[in-house]
Amino acid sequence: MAMARVDGSGSDRSIECRIEIRMTQKRIERKPLLNVSMGRCTVSSVDTRQITFEPGQETGKHTHPCPVIGYIAKGAALLQVEGEPVQELPHGSAFYEPADTVILRFDNASATEPMVFIANYLLDGQPDLIRML
Questions:
Q1: Cα gap 57→40, rounded to integer Å
Q2: 3-state class of 45 per DSSP?
Q3: Do the beta carbons of residue 115 and residue 74 sit within 8 Å?
Q4: Angle at 68 between CA 62 and CA 71, to 5 degrees
Q5: What is the pTM (predicted TM-score) of this model?
């Protein structure tokens, strides 16, 4: 609550006013991006990386010793987990790569624009983040 003193015009008297200021909180939107069950998973640390791919860059066949949860911050990616169809991941998409599972491709979908993604490696003492096959 704020206090203000206002003098009346031409008067020796003053008028006290109490002004109540209420701050309204803006609504926070929490948009679901990914919900994945990882079973019993022990995580002792998280290593978060921002990774940039050049136009047309491909990862190649690989695995991770830990689960990876990521977010496409710029551009678009193509992800294919062995035994599953290719997933198109546009800007703003979240993705999951299970531990010790063959990733056939994680590629920049554009031949002309770079792609940036954020990868969260859910570690349990594993030193290596990726194993190329």
A1: 34
A2: strand
A3: yes
A4: 110
A5: 0.78
The H helix count followed by the E strand count for the chain is 0, 11
Residues 87-106 have pLDDT tens digits of 999 999 999 999 999 999 99
Q: Which amino acid is at 6?
A: V
Question: Which strands make up the sheet holding 115-123, listed edge to edge?
Answer: 45-53, 115-123, 68-74, 94-97
Distance between CA 67 and CA 100 in Å, rounded?
A: 8
Domains of the chain with CATH codes: 45-132 (2.60.120.10)
pLDDT for 12 beyond 70: no
Residue of 66, 98, 65 whose CA lies nearest to 81: 98
CA 41 to chain centre: 20
Tokens of 104: 């056939």
What are the phi and psi torsion angles at 132 (to 5°)? -80, 140
Q: What is the DSSP string of 89-113?
A: E-TT-EEEE-TT--EEEEEES-SSS
Give the pLDDT of residue 100: 94
